[in-house]
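Appendix C: a fully annotated inverse folding record. The material below is reproduced so that readers can follow the format used throughout the book. The structure is listed first as tokens, followed by the designed sequence.
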């Protein structure tokens, strides 16, 4: 039998396995991958607070660390919303809830609505002129808040649990604040829009899990996407029976905002608007509980829905016929002008809103198509109420900070949004020629010396420890105390080479 020789360990106790080490190239590649991931998750520059721009429609975040929600729903709560940049630069290590876009809002960071322990690091003092540490500024009094800022969403008031909830939520277009009877651009579960239970398997919903309102910024974002006021997440459960398909509408106005603006009920089922989506909850006593699939049979349910739709259409046609007859009677006069009045004009067409169905008493939400704005009546009676809601007249812009530049050589990137390599190269490109040449020469000198220092380690296969690096740079600086300390640490007891794994080397 062949004799098996003993395998002895290497002389140096500082050697490490290949699995625990990486080359410089691997390290740089890993850092570049992390930077790319960070830029994808946070694509915008975050070095400027939006408060100086005034009230905007912008992406907002609620900081639950600075403004923790009350334990009881009825307790008073001082809410606050911060802009995208402040959520990163001033509240980066706090618990945040992303609210997505809300209109007519001014950043509350560094104001009387946020604690002095968390100042705004991006704005400058109005008197001192120094940047950062801004606290106690007057908050905008006309900012509007709802329970979203306390981490609750929808008419059900659910909190977001990323481990349990999934599905699709829809943001109301918003026709009023909570104080005005609206919802304040709340996010809604489809079942709650219709007043249905989200925990009932009787044909109302196919899952007992909950749809996510809005994700915390600490949650991974690759599985969710927001488009036109709709929040999507993978594995969305089917929409409840009677809820319109997502491709059929562009915006939604919840029943609360419709109640606050009942005039919009006239438009349901007309050009640019879908038929009403009724609310079947307790707050709608005139609407009886509908027969839905899974309760008394699909055939009976479908017949009931069709009959209800036909009845509604008949009512509308009858109303329009009566109105047309009335209009005809009122305007059934000779179209010719009497002798001696050659400039007389024919009777004007009636305003569009007078041809619409009467305002229904039922409670429902209104779903709008992409071109809905083109079909509002703009007569002298209707335009004033549209003017109070300018987003019904024209599509509104949402403010977005400048995108962080990815080209490392342009020097235009945001402070705090680029890598150290990018910032170094940008600073070098902005230097005057003489200083830039001196910097490059110093860098090359350091590189050559560092290569000479590392070569013996590469030849022997010995790993470079943190103390070796400290000693090397202490020698470059001529730091005798640093050299003595490094020698003491290296000569000290302990197993191996006494190397400690540290970041930053």
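Designed amino acids, in order:
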């Amino acid at each position: 039998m062949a004799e098996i020789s003993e395998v002895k360990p290497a002389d140096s106790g500082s050697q490490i396995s290949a699995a625990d080490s990486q080359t410089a190239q691997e390290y740089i590649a890993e850092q570049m991958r992390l930077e790319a991931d960070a830029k994808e998750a946070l694509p915008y520059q975050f070095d400027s607070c939006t408060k100086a721009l005034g009230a905007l429609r912008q992406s907002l975040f609620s900081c639950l660390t600075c403004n923790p929600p009350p334990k009881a729903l009825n307790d008073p709560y001082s809410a606050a919303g911060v802009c995208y940049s402040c959520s990163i630069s001033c509240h980066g290590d706090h618990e945040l809830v992303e609210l997505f876009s809300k209109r007519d809002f001014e950043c509350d960071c560094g104001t009387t609505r946020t604690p002095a322990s968390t100042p705004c690091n991006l704005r400058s003092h109005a008197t001192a002129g120094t940047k950062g540490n801004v606290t106690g500024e007057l908050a905008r009094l006309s900012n509007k808040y709802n329970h979203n800022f306390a981490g609750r969403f929808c008419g059900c008031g659910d909190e977001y649990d990323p481990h349990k909830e999934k599905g699709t939520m829809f943001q109301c277009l918003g026709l009023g604040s909570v104080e005005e009877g609206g919802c304040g651009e709340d996010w809604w579960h489809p079942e709650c829009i219709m007043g249905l239970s989200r925990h009932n398997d009787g044909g109302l919903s196919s899952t007992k899990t909950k749809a996510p309102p809005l994700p915390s910024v600490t949650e991974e974002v690759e599985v969710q996407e927001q488009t036109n006021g709709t929040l999507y997440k993978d594995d969305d459960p089917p929409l409840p029976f009677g809820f319109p398909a997502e491709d059929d509408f562009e915006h939604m106005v919840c029943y609360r905002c419709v109640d606050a603006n009942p005039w919009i009920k006239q438009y349901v089922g007309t050009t640019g608007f879908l038929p009403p989506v009724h609310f079947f909850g307790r707050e709608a006593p005139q609407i009886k509980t509908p027969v839905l699939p899974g309760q008394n049979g699909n055939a009976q349910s479908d017949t009931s829905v069709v009959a209800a739709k036909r009845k509604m259409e008949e009512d509308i046609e009858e109303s329009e016929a009566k109105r047309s007859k009335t209009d005809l009677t009122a305007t059934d006069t000779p179209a010719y002008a009497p002798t001696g009045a050659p400039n007389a004009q024919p009777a004007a067409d009636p305003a569009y809103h007078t041809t619409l169905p009467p305002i229904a008493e039922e409670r429902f939400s209104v779903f709008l198509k992409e071109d809905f704005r083109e079909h509002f009546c703009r007569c002298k009676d209707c335009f004033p109420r549209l003017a109070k809601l300018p987003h019904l007249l024209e599509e509104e812009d949402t403010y977005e900070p400048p995108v962080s530049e990815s080209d490392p050589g342009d020097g235009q990137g945001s402070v705090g949004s680029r890598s150290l390599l990018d910032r170094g190269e940008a600073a070098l490109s902005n230097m005057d020629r003489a200083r830039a040449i001196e910097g490059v020469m110093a860098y090359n000198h350091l590189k050559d010396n560092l290569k000479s220092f590392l070569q013996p380690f590469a030849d022997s296969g010995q790993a470079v420890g943190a103390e070796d690096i400290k000693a090397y740079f202490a020698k470059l600086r001529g730091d005798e105390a640093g050299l003595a300390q490094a020698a003491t640490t290296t000569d000290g007891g302990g197993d191996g080479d006494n190397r400690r794994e540290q970041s930053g080397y």
